[in-house]
Amino acid sequence: MDILFENRYERTKGFHKEIISYSFFKWLQSLAVYIVLTLIMIFCSLALLLPGVFSFDNTTRIFFLFLAIVVVMLIVRYVRTVEISYKRDLEINNGKPADIKVILTNDEIEVCSVNSGSKNHISYQHIRKIITTRNYYVLSTEAKHYIAFRKDGFVMGTPDEFISFIKSKVKQDAQKSKPQYVFICLASVIALSVAVFLYTANGRTIFENRAEPTEAEMEKIHEIISFEQAKLSECMELLAHYDERIKELGIEIRPMLEQNRAVNNQGLVEKHDWNKDNWLPKFYSSIIICYVFKDGKRLENRTSNDTVSYFVEIYWLLYAGKNENTTYNETPFDYFDTGFDNLLSQVSIFLSR
Question: Which of 57, 194, 234, 347 is the 20 to 30 A CA-CA neighbour of 32?
């Protein structure tokens, strides 16, 4: 049979990198997976850069960890696959790269390994895809077998003539694999579902929460801040009556104003700081927590290696929100003396052990 095209090249390490990188990073199925991973990466990046808008909670951490593991595994697998493929060629060919000769006739493709003398014959009817990389033309068969042609390796024929000939031999419907498009569409749906899940799970009501506050909301914000500061000052005055007893125990009491926002009805709670977050959340609450400190650290009671409790007294101050009536606790310290005496008694017993 007449030889129409002949192509020669060596399967160097660069060859393996270029061909294998396509299957790892440019194959349609791979791209579909990367769409999902990229959406997760974008979300995680936004959660890190904009914690006030996107919550970096446990769900986000799991996805972020999953993404990191997948990326590392993908890179490691790619590097190992290149090394194994190249070393396999060297092992078969006495430490030399494989010398490949590809011959095309009108009926078939013949791939020859000059070093070993082995030959493979492939019919054009098995070709399903024509791939172009930086240095090679690659034909992909039904069984995902790759037949490579180096662009500058044509001993007989030219690259343009080769491409024209191959396109005439390969059926047009075979060049466009429907299952691949179905797969990438399915992956896109999965990616969209993941994005919707993250949006719902993290309650990112960014348009509701981050909108510029109205005049009425600003008035409510000022009322909230004034009330909280007034109650914090009142708490400090009440604590001053216990200074001597606190000194006797060798402890320190630090009242802390804890402000939280719940961005949805699913229980996701985030810290809210009026200095940075000058907008009214959908749901807002605040409390004063009196922590007991000993030697500069929170006094804690460990009941097991992974269970710890702190010595605290908690006083709730208010509930508020965009569409909620603000509820102020005008008398949070009604039972301050009773609760605080009990707290100091517990501390005394704990320290005397």
Answer: 57
- 153 and 40 in a single domain? The answer is yes
CA–CA separation, 142 and 133 (whole Å): 19
The Cα–Cα gap between 219 and 214 comes to 9
Could you give the CA distance from residue 42 to residue 62 in angstroms, rounded to a whole number?
14
* 54 shares its domain with 105: yes
Last residue of a domain, one of 163, 197, 231: 197
Q: Are the C-beta atoms of residues 120 and 111 closer than 8 Å to each other?
A: yes
Please say whether the beta carbons of 259 and 284 come within 8 A: yes
Strand partners, 270: 261
CB 339 within 8 A of CB 236: no
- Residue 206 belongs to a domain: no
For the chain, list residues with pLDDT below 50: 52-53, 172-176, 201-208
Last residue of a domain, one of 169, 197, 225: 197
Q: What's the one-letter identity of residue 292?
A: V
Question: In terms of pTM, does the model score above 0.70?
Answer: no
Split into its structural domains, the chain has a count of 2
Kindly write down the DSSP assignment for every residue of 10-79, as one continuous string. EE-HHHHHHHHHHHHHTSHHHHHHHHHHHHHHHHHHHHHH-TTTS---HHHHHHHHHHHHHHHHHHHHHH
Q: Domain range for residue 232?
A: 212-351
25 and 172, same domain (yes or no): yes
- How many Cβ atoms from other residues are within 10 Å of residue 6's Cβ? 17
What are the pLDDT digits (tens) for 238-272? 999 999 999 999 999 999 999 998 765 555 678 89
Element housing 165 (H / E): helix 159-169
Q: Is residue 204 part of a domain?
A: no
